[in-house]
Every structure is written in structure tokens, then in C-alpha cells.
Design brief:
The structure holds two protein chains of two kinds.
Chain A (H helix, E strand, L loop, with lengths): L3 E8 L10 H16 L8 E5 L8 H9 L6 E4 L5 H14 L5 E8 L26 H16 L3 H15 L13 H6 L2 E4 L1 E2 L9 E9 H7 L5 E10 L13 H15 L8 E3 L5 H10 L8 H6 L16 H4 L4 H16 L13 E8 L3 E9 L2
Parallel strand pairs in A: 2-3, 2-4, 9-10
Antiparallel strand pairs in A: 1-7, 1-8, 4-7, 5-6, 8-11, 10-11
Helix pairs in contact in A: 1-2, 3-12, 4-9, 5-9
Chain B lengths: L2 H5 L3 E2 L4 E2 L7 E7 L5 E3 L14 E5 L3 E10 L10 E8 L4 E6 L14 E13 L5 E9 L2
Parallel strand pairs in B: 1-10
Antiparallel strand pairs in B: 2-3, 3-4, 3-5, 6-7, 6-9, 7-8, 9-10
Classes of the chains: A alpha/beta, B mainly beta.
């Protein structure tokens, strides 16, 4: 099977663009990625598009109606917050299978404001606030509290994640926010669902990101110059766990995916130079340090205390600012974090560049659940 | 409210809350006869081992321990805050999510692992469109 390379990749600055349509945002990112690759839409043999809010709305085709209706196959994907990464992986698989040599992957989302979560639908009466909470901040608070229960992880340690990621985003002009948030500010922000304060919740933003993927033969033909090699692409769902009916489990599917990704790439966690992981809430980032093998079980609190995951540390995590400060446009997030890692592997990340980055990892979780992990390698 | 709704017994807030003609309400689990996995609500296939038609209903305990919680300060419009969302492991198996009541919504006061019990009360006055009342379950500190 052919290796797969990213030849072009880009994202729009995340923000709020109520005057734009979803296809327009997706089209903007698609053109940016094509320009980055030095290719045209006419050269793309297929398009994989990720979007959640208009999952029934043929967004991929409507992107092509904006930038070039070439008649190629278009697949639309929805997989909760793993939507963008799933679209990228569909493109990767079609090249792996030898069906195409050049495929465009697009992830796009336009978000409303406010809390995400299940309102407890169904028949009868609303269940929110009656049978506990289905709001996302509370669901991820409970997941974090499980770590606190096992290892004594503190509110302050969770809050430090947010301090770090907001600091990182001050160096990323494509992030929604470029604002320092000191520890006291994070801890004293409005409490949403203990222990997650408002500044420990990801930002609802509009966004789009796109990538051009190529087979090895096509990549060599076009020139490997700034190419990034996809060393592993893995997607898992949630294996059965005794509490998962009432407590969505983001750990097992991540551990399963990480193990498979390291095996596929022939790499270990020690080889990873930077990680963009799914910090939808500050509590989640702590869990994933251990789930991804960045440290041993029970050591995540120490990792954040010692600054090992900050830029300049042993394994920088979310140097883009993460979902907490860059923003989290659900369908775009998975490709945007591949963009971030690729930018470092290309040595083009400017002020926030992770020095000598050779191997990078991206991770997203769609609650329900889907976990996608990609391992990427510098080529030249 | 219709007269029928006013006269009727409250309805269960979820299908796995059972209200017998005689006796106390209780929560019902389903246990897989092959692998022992426990579920809430009726089903025919076990999602742990895939066994079909091996699930048997059993009465869940009213005693358990608090696994984890969150104190919810911001919720959807119209929902009173704060409240404690709790995940409780019941004795003999089964994990249920609900509100933890009769405790201060303060992390200093709530201990993970603390013993709790299931209590059955009206669903905070919430009624459906037909005016029906509902019986809900809650957790409270025990002992």
C-alpha cells in the first residue's frame, strides 16, 4: 500500500462569521489548502467533507459549487467532534486503497453560542437538572473528577491547562483569542460545572480547515518539498465499559487508538515531539496525557505542574492554543490540528515553533464516541 | 390539567424506574447471563459480549457509593442551578446518574466514595404537556 502525504494544508482564522455560509467558509479553506499545495481543484480526484451542523446538507458538494464542480465523488462525514479527522481519514483510506492519488479533505463548522449537550429529549419531561447533567462542561467535569478521585488531581492543576493553552494562543494569529489568562483569572472565572470554569471550556467559533492528500508516487512526481508524511491514521469507537451508559468514556477509545497508532507507525510515545489533543475542557487534557502515553498513569498532574507540556517543555501540547483558546468549530477541529502539527514539522510556526519537530500527533474525541489519532512525520 | 391526569398516579421519569401496584418504587437493571454486564432499560442483546436474549431483569439496590460528581452552576435556560450531578455505583452492580440532594453544593462537603441511597420523589414539579406528574429518583447521603 502506498504511503500517504499531506501536500497542502491550511485553516482560516477561527472566529465568528455570521455573514458567511458554511460552504463559503469551507471553500475558503479548500482554496487555501490547494494554493498551499500549488494545485487546482481540477486535479482533485475526490473530496471528503466533514461537517456536523448541516450533516444532511451535502456541504461537500456545496463547497465545490463555490470553487469548481468537477463531477468527482464527494463524501460527507459526521462523527461528532471527530468529524474533521474522519473526513481526513476517509481521504487517507481512499489513497491507501489505491483508488485515488490526490484527494481534498475539508472540515467546516458554523457554531451557535452557548452550552452544548443533550437536553435529555425523548418523551415526558426535561431530564436536565433532574437526573444529573448532560451538558458537556459537566460530562467532562465528571470525567476529570474520576482522575481526581484516583490520583488527587486538583482544581488548580486542571486550571493550569487553561493558563498554558491561552498563553500558547498569544503566539497564534489564527486562534480565536490571543489573551493571557493567569491562574487566578482562570480559577476565579464563572464556574460552569465544577471544576470547569468558563475559561476551562472550549470556545464555540466558526472555522474551516482543509488538506490535500497524495499518494507517494504523486507526491514524488509533484515534489516532496514541504510534504508531511502520514505515519498512522486510526479511528476507534468506545468499547463497552461498565459505567459508559451514564458516563461517556473518553479514555478507553483514546488508549485503543493510541496503541494502534504507535504500532502502525512503528513509533513510541517518546518519539513524539508535539501533540495537538482534544482539550474540549481543561479536565480532558489531563486525562489524555496518560491516555496517549505521554506519561505514566497518575503522572499527568506532575506533567502540567512541571511545565513539561508547555512550549519549550519535554512534549509541548496544544501549542496552537488548543480548543480552549484557538476555538472548537466541531467539524473543522480535526483538520485544524493536523494543520498545526504540519506547520511545526515544516518549520513554519514562527514564534511558537517547537524546535526540531520531526514527529507530531493529533487527537480528537467525538463524544458518543469516536477517537481519531494521526501521527505525522517531517519529510525533508 | 385534565381530570384524568390529576387523578392518575405519577408516571416514571425513565422506563427503568418501576412503580409496582403494591410496594415501593425501585430501579430495574438488566443483567447479561453470559458475561454479567449490567444495563439500564430493556434490551435484547448484550453490548459487552453480544449474547442475544440472555438479559434478565433484576432489582437494583437502593444503596450505593458516589463515584464522581460535578456541581453544575450554568445549565440550559429555565433549569434551576446549582445542582450536583452524580454518578453512583449501586451495591450489587449498576451505575446510575442523577441529582445528589440534601447536601451543600460545595466540593469541600462532597466526598467521592461516600455512601448514598436512592430516594424517590416528585420530579421537581415538572409536568408534561398533558399535565401528568412524574416520579423521579434522587441520591442523598446515607448513614
Amino acid at each position: 500500500m502506498s504511503d500517504v502525504y499531506v501536500l497542502g494544508i491550511d485553516m482560516i482564522k477561527f472566529g465568528r462569521f455570521p455573514e458567511k455560509t458554511v460552504p463559503q467558509l469551507g471553500a475558503t479553506a479548500a482554496l487555501m489548502a490547494l494554493d498551499d499545495a500549488g494545485l487546482k481543484i481540477q486535479q482533485m480526484e475526490a473530496v471528503c467533507c466533514g461537517n456536523l451542523g448541516q450533516a444532511g446538507g451535502m456541504v461537500g458538494q456545496r463547497v465545490l459549487q463555490e470553487i469548481g464542480q468537477t463531477g468527482v465523488p464527494v463524501v460527507n462525514c459526521a462523527n461528532a467532534c471527530a468529524t474533521g479527522a474522519t473526513a481526513f481519514r476517509e481521504a487517507w483510506m481512499s489513497i491507501k486503497a489505491g483508488v485515488y492519488d490526490l484527494v481534498l479533505a475539508v472540515g467546516v463548522e458554523q457554531m451557535g453560542r452557548g452550552l452544548l449537550g443533550g437536553a435529555g429529549g425523548g418523551s415526558g419531561i426535561p431530564k436536565e437538572g433532574l437526573l444529573g447533567s448532560g451538558t458537556m462542561p459537566a460530562v467532562f467535569a465528571e470525567a476529570g473528577m474520576e482522575h481526581s478521585r484516583k490520583y488527587g488531581t486538583s482544581f488548580e492543576q486542571f486550571a493550569k491547562v487553561s493558563v498554558k493553552n491561552h498563553h500558547h494562543s498569544t503566539m497564534n494569529s489564527k486562534a480565536m483569542y490571543q489573551i493571557e489568562t493567569p491562574l487566578e483569572t482562570v480559577m476565579n472565572a464563572e464556574m460552569i460545572a465544577y471544576p470547569n470554569t468558563k475559561l476551562m471550556c472550549s470556545v464555540n467559533v466558526d472555522g474551516a480547515a482543509a488538506a490535500v492528500l497524495a499518494s507517494e508516487s504523486k507526491a514524488r512526481e509533484l515534489g516532496l518539498g514541504r510534504a508531511v508524511k502520514v505515519k498512522a491514521s486510526v479511528l476507534t469507537s468506545d468499547p463497552w465499559q461498565e459505567r459508559d451508559l451514564v458516563m461517556p468514556d473518553v479514555n478507553s477509545c483514546t488508549r485503543l487508538a493510541a496503541k494502534a497508532a504507535y504500532e502502525m507507525a512503528g513509533l513510541g510515545a517518546d518519539d513524539v515531539d508535539l501533540v495537538e489533543l482534544h482539550d474540549c475542557f481543561a479536565t480532558a487534557e489531563i486525562l489524555h496525557y496518560e491516555n496517549l502515553g505521554l506519561c505514566g498513569d497518575g503522572e499527568a498532574g506532575k506533567l502540567i505542574d512541571e511545565g513539561q507540556t508547555a512550549l519549550g517543555g519535554r512534549v509541548p501540547v496544544n501549542v496552537s492554543g488548543g480548543l480552549l483558546s484557538k476555538g472548537h468549530p466541531l467539524g473543522a477541529t480535526g483538520i485544524a490540528n493536523i494543520y498545526e502539527v504540519s506547520t511545526h514539522l515544516r518549520g513554519e510556526a514562527g514564534e511558537r515553533q517547537v524546535e526540531n519537530a520531526r514527529i507530531g500527533m493529533t487527537h480528537v474525541i467525538g463524544l458518543g464516541s469516536a477517537c481519531a489519532i494521526h501521527l505525522l512525520e517531517k519529510v525533508n | 390539567m385534565s381530570e384524568a391526569a390529576a387523578a392518575a398516579k405519577p408516571l416514571p421519569v425513565v422506563p427503568f424506574l418501576k412503580i409496582p401496584e403494591a410496594g415501593d418504587p425501585y430501579l430495574e437493571g438488566q443483567k447479561c447471563g453470559v458475561c454479567g454486564a449490567i444495563f439500564l432499560g430493556e434490551r435484547s442483546t448484550c453490548s459487552s459480549c453480544g449474547a442475544r436474549d440472555k438479559l434478565e431483569a433484576f432489582r437494583l439496590a437502593n444503596q450505593g457509593t458516589l463515584h464522581v460528581y460535578s456541581i453544575v452552576h450554568r445549565s440550559f435556560p429555565g433549569i434551576d442551578v446549582p445542582y450536583v450531578s452524580a454518578i453512583v455505583d449501586l451495591e450489587g452492580g449498576g451505575t446510575v446518574k442523577g441529582n445528589l440532594i440534601n447536601i451543600e453544593p460545595d466540593p469541600e462537603k462532597i466526598q467521592m466514595g461516600m455512601p448514598v441511597e436512592v430516594v424517590y420523589q416528585d420530579a421537581l414539579g415538572r409536568k408534561d404537556r398533558e399535565g401528568n406528574s412524574y416520579l423521579s429518583y434522587f441520591f442523598q447521603p446515607r448513614g
